Amino acid sequence: MKLWMHGCGPNPQEGARHLKDLGFSVVVGGQDAAEAVLAQGMEYYICTGAYRGPQFQGDEWLAEDMWGRKQAWFSSTCPTREEVRQYNLQQVRRLAATKGIRGILIDGARFASPASGEPEAFYTCFCPHCMEKARRMGFDDKEMRIAASMLYDFQHGKPLDLVPYYAGLKEWFEFRRAATTEHLLDFVQAVKEVNPELETGIYIFAPALADLVGQHYRDLARHMDIMAPMLYHCYADENGPACLNVELATMLRMLEGASGLTTEQRIRLLSGLTGHELTGYESVSSLQAGLSNRILQRETERARIMGPDTQLVPIIQLDAPDIEEAIQKTMAGGADAVNFFVYQQAQAEALRPLWERLRQ
Ligand SMILES: [Zn+2]
Q: 124 alpha carbon to ligand 1 midpoint, in Å?
């Protein structure tokens, strides 16, 4: 199988040589490492962020919750501000002109997830720009705002029936989807404008979490050449946006005060996982400690179903326990290749026999 690695360390020349020696053939990372990797005869994809930029630092760029409070999340701004979007697309066009690269992957094009900052950051973005955009896109901004407030109250123990607010919640998540898809299709167009031969791809949330942040596999798989689901399933740090175990543990913690729900129903409320898949993970601490490799196969299968023709390259943790089984499960789910996060010289070297086996 073809081996992908995210990053090549602080010294790109040294990292690229090492990865070549270990048998890796594709590297993803910043523009600064492109030359070193290409010089080793490997393929290179540039990874770019989305809703950020050095000039968007002040509070006025932050996302807002339903009550107009500014919320910081994952160093990102409000996800719909036109100035930020246009700046990102301009950066993408600049990166697309890099000689010799195979393509560009976008990361962080989404709304806030439960584990993206303070818990309240999830309840964004209801800023005036987003609400105006929502109205223009045909969404009912008032209904969205009320439904999100009800979910917040419910989460904090207020006994209420969410059913009457279902339409509003759906509206809120559909707005997230429409706004995110718009930016991602603009991203694809920006890359192709500069060089139609380049491939476009996305570091996307796992299928179980993607709809929550506005990333819709079925919208995107038709336009992206590469879908790279982030299947980090046993991330050790409690602060781990996009990591399955961290997001699910945070979700459960968020909903601990919600009345009348079982643990399974709490997880089901916001994620796409079934009770069966969560057997054995009934507490915040058991989720935080990490999920079994089985989830890698399940989530890859889901991604494959929603993008039958796309190049599917899930990215998994380089430090995952039993990494060989993790790779097998991911491939068994229908992946075309596996990418690893993130290059660490000693870790990659310790796995040399594994890389040799995988190349055969
Ligand atoms: Zn906004």
A: 7
